[in-house]
Amino acid sequence: MKDRLSAFFGFEEKRTNLQTELTAGLTTFLTMAYIIVVNPSILSETGMPFAGVLLATVLVSAGSSILMGFMANLPFAMAPGMGINAFFTYTLVIGAGAPWQTALGAVFISGVIFLGLSLMGVRERIVAAIPTPVRYGVAAGIGLFLALIGLQSVDFIISDPATLVGFGGLSAQIGVFALGLAGTAWMVIRRIRGALVFGIVGTSVVALLVSAIAEHLGYAAFAEMPEAVFAWPDTGVLFALDIRGALAVGMIMPVFTFLFTDIFDSLSTFVGISEVGGFIDEKTGQPRNVGRALLADAISTTASGLLGTSSGTTYIESAAGIEEGGHTGLTAIVAGLLFVPFMFLSPLLALVPNVATAPVLVLVGLFMMQPLSRVRWNDFEEALPAFLAVILIPLTYNITQGIIWAFLAYTAIKLLLGKWRELTVTLIIIDILAIISLLYAGE
């Protein structure tokens, strides 16, 4: 069995082994498991049943990740995307008054279009059109975004009306976070295999103990044992989409927004992680197996509308598993399979609190800074687009905004310098779509 897996996924060629892939899959799952609860909590504000969206989230995350592993043999796990779920809930349903069933129909239609573009090879041309400095900047920007998410999840960084953000102050939770960060960093520096997983497990144990003591002393708990083990799945949102309603003229822009955001989120994440993980084809300079990977992404979006959640996409947390040595699709398959039990065991997620995954997200953010060393910072023609991607992704809290403005800056520089011949038709089309997206977002 072990030899068959090695031959199928190419362990020897990719310099990995079964234990490494299993550990990497577990690491990826632990860093993105929050979506099982977070996605339903956002979408349920539309009136959708929380338990129903939870089931849809698990099905999309498991099925899409497994599909990615088998189709593309890449360690990229997938799940319903953050950001697009907020658009689904707050802009389309609550803001525009569209029924959630119609919104699901819009997700499905965008997925079908996405699938068509993938089969025609259009998305591969989009990947090829992304300028090299933009790729480097996106990779680093995603790293900063991950670190920000981690710091924010434990209230190390909080909102501040005077300065936008600020330090949250010392607390027991911050102490556990600092201890977890130091311990995990020490294991990484010592090159201990499975360092990130050990860090998550060890920090979880410390968090439960410290939280119990803090609660006994009258302070708020930040980690707790689950009150239950089993929770029965709710099928209330499966195949509840309204395709006819989503085909109305008034739904054209929402469908376009779903499509555009999904394309750019998945592309920027895919390209950024590929740069960091070394998944670039030496001959073409493009990410390996890009066609199959993007097809899996498109299928995930289509399935999301059918199963009852916002669009599925490649997850930036996959970088955590890659850093643990995951280099094949088995990493994504393991991460996907670990989602399956949570159709029934979702309460157990309380055993891994935010304070345990935050140190890992910060360290992965550090790992993703590496591509910046390849940017020629003394060449402002290359440096400016990369810099915009780096700072705008975390500061706008949106991967799409970072890559859009990096694209536009790159194009503007080439035009101003009279180097318009270096601009491809695909890149110009992307710029036009980006501008349309910005105009629509500003309404």
Question: Describe it for me?
Answer:
Helix 18 packs across helix 19. A hairpin with a 3-residue loop joins strand 2 and strand 3. The model has no long low-confidence stretch (mean pLDDT 87). By secondary structure, the chain is mainly α. Helix content is 65%, strand content 3%. The strands form two sheets. Strands 1-4 form a two-stranded antiparallel sheet. Strands 2-3 form a two-stranded antiparallel sheet. The chain has one domain.
Give a nutshell description of this structure.
The chain has helices at 2-9, 18-32, 35-43, 50-72, 84-95, 100-119, 122-129, 132-153, 172-189, 195-216, 243-246, 252-277, 290-307, 318-323, 329-339, 354-367, 380-396, 399-416, 425-441; strands at 78-80, 157-160, 164-167, 312-314.
Which short descriptors sum up this protein?
4 strands, two-stranded antiparallel ribbon, mainly alpha, 443 residues, single chain, 65% helix
Kindly report the average pLDDT value: 87
Going across the major beta sheet, what is the strand order? 1-4
Give the strand tally: 4
> What is the chain-wise order of helices and strands?
HHHHEHHHHEEHHHHHEHHHHHH
Query: What is the number of domains?
Result: 1
Question: Major β-sheet, in short?
Answer: 2 strands, antiparallel
Summing up helix and strand content along with how strands pair, one would put the structural category as: mainly alpha
Helical fraction: 55-70%
Rounded radius of gyration (Å): 21 Å
Q: How far is the N terminus from the C terminus?
A: 56 Å
